[in-house]
């Protein structure tokens, strides 16, 4: 898609807003618990969204099903 500088800036701004809203929504959603699971006493660790390309995150090699 050929975008002018202004269009590209608007698209980047919109993407940033959507990502921020999604991150906020996921933070709230992780705290909501259905009443059917009210007896559970699990501990939930909730982090902000992590970029897939983050060098701090890696997967260990293991078996696959």
- Name the helicity range: 25-40%
Alpha-carbon Rg, integer: 18 Å
Strand content: under 5%
- State mean pLDDT (0 to 100 scale): 79
Uncertain segments of ≥5 residues (pLDDT<50)?
Answer: none
Total E-strand runs: 0
| SSE succession | H
Question: What's the number of domains?
Answer: 1
Number of distinct helices: 1
Please tell me what the overall shape is.
flat
Structural class: mainly alpha
How would you sum up the major sheet?
none
The CA-CA distance between the termini, in Å, is 40 Å
For the structure shown, list the relevant keywords.
single chain; 65 residues; mainly alpha; 1 helix; 38% helix; 0% strand; flat
Note down, in words, how this protein is organized:
This protein is an all-alpha fold and 65 residues long. It has one domain (1-51). The chain contains one helix and no strands. The termini are far apart. The model has no long low-confidence stretch (mean pLDDT 79).
Briefly, what is this?
The chain has one helix at residues 5-29. With 65 residues, it is mostly helical. The longest helix is centred in the N-terminal third of the chain and has 25 residues, at 5-29.
Write the layout of secondary structure elements.
Elements: H1 5-29
